[in-house]
What we know:
With 280 residues, the chain is mainly α. Helix content is 81%, strand content 0%. The chain has one domain: ABC transporter involved in vitamin B12 uptake, BtuC (Orthogonal Bundle), CATH 1.10.3470.10. Helix 3 (41-58) packs across helix 10 (179-220). It is globular. The protein starts with a helix and ends with a helix.
Amino acid sequence: MHVDFDVAWQVMKWPLAACLLLPPLLVYLGLHVVKREVIFVDLALAQLATLGTCVALIMGYSFSDRISFWISLAVTFLGAALFSWSRNSEKQHVPQEAIIGITFVVAAAGVILLLSRVAGGKEELEHLLTGDILNVTAGDVAQRAVIFAALAGFFAAFHRHFALISENAKAAAASGLKVRLWDFLFYAAFAVVVVFFVRVAGVLLTFAYLIVPAVCSVMLAQTWKSRLMVGWGIAAAASLVGLWASFSMDLPTGAAIVCACGLALVIVTIGVSLKKGELV
């Protein structure tokens, strides 16, 4: 199949920049999610961001209006507060994952109900799920790169606190850390990342970037730094494959990258299993 690389570059250069510059912070957050064993927290936050956007749409604002962004962020912050409050304690009998799952289901149902009252609701739902990363602009990439860099600095400054809580919340509490306060700060910053990325990439691609590279890197590396590098490499490789498939076969870009991420997970799982002799 012939591919005009000049045309491909013109079409794909900013989507490629977004897929290379923005996922490293998502991979870092994904590593925390895997450590905390709350796999669907990012999907729940992404769905809350979508719910906030739907609230703005039902109020008469468009997807691109600034007020739509702030409503989406406010709803996601409420989710961050809920998840930090629902942190397991010795006296708590309801697992945090149950709270997260319920939040996701209710938010998803709310999205469907709200969009049923909006003209073109089916198209809006598809847009919110799959995003529009193919049409991302230089301004979109630059804005998110600056914001993600600032948030990366925040997570780097307090990495020890966040890592201790993710690895052993009881030990963190015993050391004097206010676990629920730090959890709220973690999830609030997490919410900002999710809201900004969902608005260009959609819920599905956001979830894929957060979880798949992190899971792969946990299987392949041991330290936070090495896992972050491996995870970014896997995210970059999946992005390249997905973008190439999207352009050459005229496929939806976000869905192609998500499937490429899934393929990467299969390859890593088989490779690790073969190395351990589990498939022999």
